[in-house]
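Hallway conversation turned thread

IA: we were arguing at lunch whether anyone had actually written out Cobalt transporter end to end. Turns out nobody had. So, for the record, here is the sequence (264 residues) and right after it the structure tokens. Reply here if something looks off.
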Amino acid sequence: MERKFIGAGLFAGLVAGIVSFVFARIFIEPQVAKAIAFEESQSKAEEMAHAAEHAAEQDHHGEVEVFSRTIQENFGAGVGTVVFALAMGAFFAVAFTVLWAYVGRRWPSTDPRAVVGALGLLGFVAAFGVPFFVYPANPPAVGDDATIGERSGSFLIITLVSVIAMIIAVVVALQLRDRIGGLAGATIAGIGYLVVIGVAKELLPEFHEVPAGFPAAVIGDFRVYAIANQVVLWTVLTLVFAAAISAFTRRTEQAAGDLVTAAR
């Protein structure tokens, strides 16, 4: 059964990745193009303002671009999105296998599709929502190249802290369910999760590197579409995985029914 769960996760990730890429290609890519156009206009303005550095700038623009913009926004982005979604699907399947092994054994009447739905919501919050809240995504041309390593490291730290804290919160909520009730247990676990995130946010550095004159509307639209894109990805991933689990359940019940009929 675990192999079927992994297969379902990979299939759900593949479908989610394709849908997510189509969404990004339609809505996010135009915002990226606007950001790149702003960056290029800034470079031209600097060239005109610093005539003494004109030769160096010419050398810079003489560099050969390995991959064209067309390849990057179509093939490159498509492959990257699908590979990322496949990885998320595999992690989703592993998380469901572990969670269902505990929930299904302790509360057999639980609908596995409800567990899938809860896992999708909690995964979205832990793996994307909270890290995005702490470090919102920015389009190209926003950010200092000198701090890219520190920014990437900080984003990775808050993501790991969020996912680990969410796992602990789920374990705590399940342990408290029979003692004080599901709602009270989830509330206590949720408060603990928020406290951990609040402390981590205070300890991590902040970055305010939007260049002067950068269109605020481009940043706003880019972030809105980035959130919507992740909502699309996680929703499709969860629904397809839940549909696959339903199919497995029906087949298992049918097989059990056939065995009973044959025994009679």
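OS: looked through it. The chain has a mean pLDDT of 88.
IA: good, adding that to the notes. The chain is about 85% helix and 0% strand.
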